[in-house]
Structures are given as structure tokens and as C-alpha cells.
């Protein structure tokens, strides 16, 4: 019997996906326990469908299949991704920092970044990026041909140094 069951759980997040039944060598049933206040049930369904997709490939009779040959994304997931990307925006032949200059002039108080940790207007984004560019980067020896790794959590602050580097070195 092949099937996947989703059961809500009191603890935070996704707790586990576990084998709960083995009727035969060719089948299994998995259950995911999760807190529906933290993780949406549809996301859990997607995780379980991906788990099922991978497990079906691992359980094939062809034991010569290499792990690198396992398709981690299903045909249905590929179709969904292609539908999200069905309309490709027109190519803009300009640098990112140049694209920011127009809204800085035309509507500086409009939101440029809206993030979980705060918001920045175009004016604020430009001011912070310019300040970082002119007052800090050059003094640290940052210049052309100098590799500077950037590592940030998803945050409104991620964009500021990226834009500063573009302003200064492109």
C-alpha cells in the first residue's frame, strides 16, 4: 500500500517524516507531523510529494542507478515552475545601479525595499549605498579586481552593499 498521510502536530514546525507501515517489500506509508500554525499544509504536501517522487526512484529494481541520476524534481513540479516563469520580462540593457537612479529622482519617497526587518525608500537606499561606497569601501582597499564576498541573511540590508559595489565598481 503506497500512500502519504499528513497529521498536524502540537510542536513547532515539521517534526519528522517517518516510516510507519511496511506491508510488503514494494511499499511503505509515511506520516509527517507538523504544526499548521507554523507550516502551511500545502507546503507539507509538496514536501511529501517530493519525498515520494525520490523514494519511488530509489526503490526501482534497477540497482545500477547512481544517486546522481535521481531526479529530485518531479514532472508536476517542473510544470509548476515553468508556469511561474511563463512570461519572461523584456531584457533591460542597463546596470542595476543605473536603474535605481530614475526612481531616486522621480519618486524618492516611494518604497524601494519592503522586508521583514524594515523598509527603505529609494532616497534612503541611495543615501545608504552612496555613503557605504564613498566613506568605507575605498578606505578598506576595495577596488577593481578585488574579490569581496558578501554573506547576508535575507534582509533589507542585503541590498545596500550590493548596490554600493555596483555604484563604485561598475
Automatic annotation (TrEMBL):
Superkingdom of source: Eukaryota
UniProt keyword Transport, yes or no: no
Keywords attached to this entry: Ligase, Phosphopantetheine, Phosphoprotein
GO MF terms held by the record: ligase activity; phosphopantetheine binding
InterPro entries: ANL_N_sf
GO cellular component, one term: cytoplasm
One example of a Gene Ontology biological process annotation: secondary metabolite biosynthetic process
Protein name per Swiss-Prot or TrEMBL: Uncharacterized protein
Organism, as annotated: Trichoglossum hirsutum
Amino acid at each position: 500500500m503506497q500512500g502519504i498521510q499528513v497529521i498536524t502536530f502540537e510542536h513547532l514546525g515539521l517534526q519528522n517524516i517517518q516510516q510507519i507501515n511496511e506491508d510488503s517489500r514494494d511499499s511503505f506509508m509515511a506520516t509527517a507531523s507538523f504544526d499548521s500554525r507554523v507550516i502551511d499544509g500545502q507546503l507539507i504536501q509538496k514536501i511529501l510529494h517530493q519525498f515520494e517522487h525520490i523514494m519511488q526512484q530509489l526503490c526501482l529494481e534497477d540497482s545500477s542507478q547512481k544517486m546522481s541520476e535521481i531526479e529530485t524534481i518531479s514532472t508536476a513540479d517542473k510544470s509548476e515552475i515553468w508556469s511561474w516563469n511563463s512570461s519572461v520580462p523584456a531584457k533591460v540593457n542597463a546596470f542595476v545601479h543605473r536603474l535605481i537612479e530614475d526612481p531616486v529622482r522621480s519618486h524618492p519617497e516611494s518604497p524601494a525595499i519592503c522586508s521583514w526587518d524594515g523598509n527603505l525608500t529609494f532616497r534612503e537606499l541611495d543615501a545608504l549605498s552612496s555613503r557605504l561606497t564613498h566613506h568605507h569601501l575605498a578606505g578598506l582597499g576595495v577596488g577593481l579586481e578585488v574579490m569581496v564576498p558578501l554573506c547576508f541573511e535575507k534582509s533589507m540590508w542585503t541590498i545596500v552593499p550590493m548596490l554600493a559595489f555596483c555604484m563604485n565598481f561598475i
